[in-house]
């Protein structure tokens, strides 16, 4: 039986394992979801470079947690733009639909096309502006377009083939100052009603985006929600009911139930951030490729910015900013080695990073290092790394490079402690 929203068949449940034994990793790298095992010699070989373990079971758990916060009739749209925040769009989209997400959200048309070509059949909303010349491609791949002006909608309508219909969501700018029909115009409902009447277009949704949903002060969010409701009231007066009205991003899904409406759009929360009952989905790992015992006064890395104060051991790890690991962690970040934090010594290089492991006994070449994730009670989550770099958790996750291998742990797979 195909997975919901896909044309592929789910893998069989993993076989039971003897308690206390380390499970082999099952990964789902192919779009059709077929499982296979990673040979130990691949993961143990440090020259293979870094890898990200993506726990699809945690992803499914997070969707369940989010759905429990919603009214029964409110749908959840899984945001998988930017390669699913670095997690891998096809595998995440497949599991999200299987776990109960109604549809998917992407930023650009090509992201939606890639999902369709990977066998994903569920609804896909493209958040970015849709140019008229792309109308036939959008319709062909059954992508739902975002319309941000009456002119853009007319352009899409004009470019559609005679037998084509394109589903659209109209976007209203209630305070973000980015894309959308301006909600503070005299009567934006007039433009929306005109869009609804254009040939070939099927107006299925109306939405806005919140600028400050994560802020402790809720006033700005409440103002935006009120503006959105004003537009809905004006549309009701015109006799126009739009089936899918949506406002909430991850932060509003968690903190503003008045923003839930018919649909919520969850991105960061899907991947385990924003609430204590959510589980981070990704762990970024690499291996030590060299150990060197050095005396006090040894300089490390580009610019010789780090000088050892005492005799110590420097570990070189096969992970760098070319893999998406932030260079802003130079001299201030940490990685986990044998369950203990090891400070970054000097600057993060393009392909390598050096750690001071002098205080950690038993470290060996080939040891696994955790650059993002949890181990032995220590937390190096994306939110904490972002606090060190001055960025945001979204950025830490989304900038993970393509040369980092993604390893997908199947939902329900037994995992080592």
Which stretches are low in confidence, meaning pLDDT under 50 for 5 or more residues running? 1-26, 28-36, 413-417
Q: What is the β-strand count?
A: 22
Approximately how much helix is present in the residues? 25-40%
User: Which structural category do the helix and sheet elements fall into?
Assistant: alpha/beta
**Tally of individual helices:** 12
CA-atom Rg in angstroms: 24 Å
Largest sheet: 9 strands, mixed
Q: Kindly report the average pLDDT value.
A: 89
| Shape annotation | elongated
Distance between the termini: 32 Å
Strand % is: 15-25%
Write the layout of secondary structure elements.
Layout: E1 26-27, E2 36-37, H1 40-43, E3 51-55, H2 56-68, E4 75-79, H3 81-85, H4 89-98, E5 103-106, H5 109-117, E6 124-129, H6 135-140, E7 144-147, H7 150-159, E8 166-173, E9 181-182, H8 188-196, E10 201-207, H9 219-237, E11 244-246, H10 250-255, E12 263-266, E13 282-294, E14 299-300, E15 306-307, E16 312-317, E17 334-337, E18 340-343, E19 353-356, E20 368-375, E21 378-380, H11 382-389, H12 393-398, E22 405-409
Parallel strand pairs: 3-22, 4-5, 4-12, 5-6, 6-7, 7-8, 8-9, 8-10, 10-11
Antiparallel strand pairs: 1-2, 3-13, 13-16, 13-20, 14-15, 16-19, 17-18, 17-20, 20-21
Helix pairs in contact: 2-4, 8-9
Using brief descriptors, characterize the structure shown.
single chain, about 425 residues, alpha/beta, 9-stranded mixed beta sheet, 9-stranded parallel beta sheet, 22 strands, elongated, disordered C terminus
């Amino acid at each position: 039986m195909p997975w919901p929203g896909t044309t592929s068949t789910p893998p069989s449940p993993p076989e039971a394992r003897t308690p206390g034994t380390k499970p082999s990793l099952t990964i789902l790298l192919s779009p059709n979801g077929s499982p296979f095992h990673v040979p130990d010699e691949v993961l143990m070989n440090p020259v293979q470079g870094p890898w990200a373990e993506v726990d699809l079971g945690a992803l499914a758990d997070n969707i369940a947690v989010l759905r429990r916060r919603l009214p029964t009739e409110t749908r959840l749209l899984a945001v998988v733009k930017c390669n699913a925040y670095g997690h891998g769009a096809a595998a995440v989209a497949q599991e999200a639909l299987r776990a109960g997400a109604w549809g998917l959200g992407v930023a650009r048309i090509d992201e939606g096309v890639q999902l369709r070509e990977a066998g994903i059949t569920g609804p896909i909303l493209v958040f970015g502006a849709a140019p008229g010349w792309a109308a036939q491609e959008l319709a062909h791949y059954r992508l739902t377009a975002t319309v941000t002006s009456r002119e853009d909608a007319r352009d899409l309508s004009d470019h559609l083939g005679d037998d084509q219909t394109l589903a659209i969501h109209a976007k209203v700018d209630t305070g973000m100052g980015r894309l959308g029909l301006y909600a503070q115009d005299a009567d934006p409902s007039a433009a929306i009603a005109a869009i609804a009447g254009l040939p070939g277009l099927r107006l299925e949704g109306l939405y806005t985006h919140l600028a400050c949903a994560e802020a402790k002060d809720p006033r700005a969010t409440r103002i935006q929600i009120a503006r959105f409701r004003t537009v809905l009231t004006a549309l009701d007066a015109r006799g126009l009911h739009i089936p899918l009205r949506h406002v909430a991003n991850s932060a509003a899904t968690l903190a503003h139930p008045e923003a839930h409406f018919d649909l919520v759009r969850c991105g960061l929360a899907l991947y385990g951030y924003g609430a204590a009952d959510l589980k981070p989905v990704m762990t970024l790992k690499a291996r030590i490729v060299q150990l060197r015992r050095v005396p006090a006064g040894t300089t490390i890395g580009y610019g010789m910015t780090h000088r050892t104060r005492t005799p110590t051991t420097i570990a070189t790890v096969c992970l760098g900013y070319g893999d998406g690991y932030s260079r802003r962690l130079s001299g201030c970040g940490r990685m986990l080695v044998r369950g203990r934090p090891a400070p970054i010594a000097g600057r993060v290089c393009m392909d390598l990073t050096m750690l001071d492991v002098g205080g950690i006994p038993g470290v060996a070449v080939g040891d696994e290092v955790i650059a993002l994730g949890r181990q032995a009670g220590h937390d190096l989550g994306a939110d904490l790394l972002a606090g060190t770099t001055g960025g945001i958790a979204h950025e830490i996750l989304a900038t993970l490079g393509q040369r980092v291998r993604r390893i997908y742990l199947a939902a329900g797979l037994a995992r080592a402690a």
